[in-house]
């Protein structure tokens, strides 16, 4: 079992930066690829960014490319999402997710059913 706890959300103005963090506990951390998803009110949960087990590969949704950066620290069992130039449309609950990636360690997956473990989410609200 893997437990994920997100932190770092809040209310910010458009144009600023914010850093989300996800702390993991449980099974060997390096077995897992990680991702951030988000869900806005009345919308489907969507992929934001993903990172493979050792940080050697990352992938981003088009709407965050150039603004967001995902990273992980395997010595601390954390994965972060650095968000820059935030926009009101980035307002959502942000979720950390993990999947066992030993079968395909270099692939970044972007669909919610691909991920086995989820955090409770952290709210990010961007005002205009």
What does this structure look like?
By secondary structure, the chain is an all-beta fold. The protein has no helices and eleven strands. It has strands at residues 2-7, 10-13, 18-26, 32-39, 46-51, 58-60, 68-73, 78-83, 92-100, 117-118, 122-127. The strands form two sheets. Strands 2, 4, 5, 6, 9, 10 and 11 form a seven-stranded mixed beta sheet that branches. The chain has a four-stranded antiparallel beta sheet with strand order 1-3-8-7, with no helix packed on it. Strand 5 (46-51) and strand 6 form a beta hairpin.
CA radius of gyration:
14 Å
Low-confidence stretches: none
Helix fraction, binned, reads under 10%
Shape: globular
User: How many strands?
Assistant: 11
What summary fits the major beta sheet?
7 strands, mixed
Protein structure class: mainly beta
Quaternary structure of the protein: single chain
What's the helix-strand series? EEEEEEEEEEE
List the total number of helices.
0
How far apart, in Å, are the first and last alpha carbons?
40 Å
Strand content: over 45%
Name the average pLDDT: 95
Short overview:
By secondary structure, this protein is mostly beta strands. It is 0% helix and 51% strand. It has strands at 2-7, 10-13, 18-26, 32-39, 46-51, 58-60, 68-73, 78-83, 92-100, 117-118, 122-127.
Keywords:
128 residues, mainly beta, seven-stranded mixed β-sheet
Provide the fold topology.
Elements: E1 2-7, E2 10-13, E3 18-26, E4 32-39, E5 46-51, E6 58-60, E7 68-73, E8 78-83, E9 92-100, E10 117-118, E11 122-127
């Amino acid at each position: 079992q893997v437990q994920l706890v997100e932190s770092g959300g809040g209310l910010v103005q458009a144009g600023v930066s914010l850093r989300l963090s996800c702390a993991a506990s449980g099974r060997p951390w390096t077995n897992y690829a990680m991702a951030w998803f988000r869900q806005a009110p009345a919308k489907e949960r969507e992929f934001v960014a993903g990172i493979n087990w050792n940080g050697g590969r990352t992938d981003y949704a088009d709407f965050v490319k150039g603004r967001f950066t995902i990273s992980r620290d395997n010595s601390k069992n954390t994965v972060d999402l650095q968000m820059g130039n935030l926009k009101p449309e980035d307002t959502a609950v942000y979720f950390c997710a993990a999947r066992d990636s030993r079968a395909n360690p270099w692939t970044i997956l972007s669909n919610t059913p691909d991920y086995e473990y989820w955090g409770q989410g952290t709210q990010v609200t961007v005002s205009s």
